[in-house]
Structures are given as structure tokens and as C-alpha cells.
């Protein structure tokens, strides 16, 4: 897996710094922005985006939070609950939207027909393979990426 980006998804919590200078490790520093914006209980705080590397066979990969600390307004620190997710990466040709083992104008047409869709689209699960860069939307960057893959 290759780290792409991180973004705060909790209102009032800012992502101040992302450090990804060691392979296999990412450090995020976040802060709430005042009273009433504290992180309390369980919930989603950060959205992490990864993209898989090309694989020749289906493999499983795991993304883990191995250390997480929180502090309250008085500076008292707490260890946050750790979590992990296992992702299955399937072999295939990136950009082969119609699964014919080649990247052609047909794949570009399918992508263009779904242009503008994102993770909030009701059919996202069916079209997300057209999100080549894994940023959660089908946009001009994806169209350009697939256009560069089309073989004459």
C-alpha cells in the first residue's frame, strides 16, 4: 500500500501535520479547535487514503494504528484505542474498467460516463474502480491517467 493523503473528517478537529518519511509508518498530529470540539468517545476522526501497488496475485494487506495518544485541555494524556483494517488487493490491470485485459477507449468511455461521481454517489461501489488515483472521486485526473494508458 502507498499512502496518498490524510484529512480530518470531524468538525472542529484540524490535521496540523502529516509525516510520512519512513516507509510503512505515518504520523498524524491533530488538534481540536476549542471548547465543544473535543474528541469524546468512539468515532471517526481522520480519513486515510491509500492506493495499492500493482500485484500479480491477490494479496491481503493490513493497515494498523499502532500508537495513538490524546490529551485533554489540562494536558493530561490518554492512550487511545488501537484499530486495524485488512484490505484485499486483487491482481489486475489498473484502468481496465471493463475487464477485457487491456486498457482501451472503451474503458475511457465508461469512466467518462461516470465522471463527477464520488464516495457519496449511491452507485459508488459499482463505479469506484474508475477512481484510478484513489482520491474518492472520478475526475479529470482519472481521465488523464487512463488516457496515458491507452495503447494504440
TrEMBL record:
InterPro entries: CBM2/CBM3_carb-bd_dom_sf, Cohesin_dom, Dockerin_1_rpt, Dockerin_dom, Dockerin_dom_sf, EF_Hand_1_Ca_BS. Gene3D superfamilies: 2.60.40.680, Dockerin domain (1.10.1330.10). Coiled coil: none annotated. It comes from the Bacteria. This is Dockerin domain-containing protein. Pfam families: Cohesin, Dockerin_1. Residues 90-152 form the Dockerin domain. CDD domains: Dockerin_II.
